[in-house]
Design goal:
The structure is a single chain. The chain has helices spanning 15-23, 29-36, 46-59; strands at 6-8, 13-14. It is mostly helical. It has a single domain, classed as Orthogonal Bundle (Arc Repressor Mutant, subunit A). It has a two-stranded antiparallel ribbon with strand order 1-2. β1 and β2 (13-14) form a beta hairpin. α1 (15-23) crosses α2 and α1 crosses α3 (46-59). The mean pLDDT is 97. It binds FE2/S2 (inorganic) cluster. FE2/S2 (inorganic) cluster is lined by residues 8-10, 38-45.
């Protein structure tokens, strides 16, 4: 996974940022949004962000 890939272009949120949020205890897409601002402007990244969050959460132990 390329962690430098931007998921949300409005806030320049990268996959790495989402991963960090999950590692910091975010347990849902809502938490990730709160922590990274992903999806708070145009909203077009929401679908991608949600999918990525789900994937990262399933990889967390
Ligand atoms: S791309 Fe994420 S809010 Fe616009």
């Amino acid at each position: 996974m390329n962690l430098n890939k931007v998921v949300c272009s409005c806030y320049k949120v990268t996959k790495g940022d989402v991963l960090k949020a999950v590692e910091n205890g975010a347990s849902s897409f809502k938490d990730v949004k709160k922590e990274t601002k992903l999806g708070k402007a145009c909203g077009k990244c929401k679908k991608k962000g949600k999918k990525l969050t789900k994937k990262l959460l399933s990889e967390q132990k």
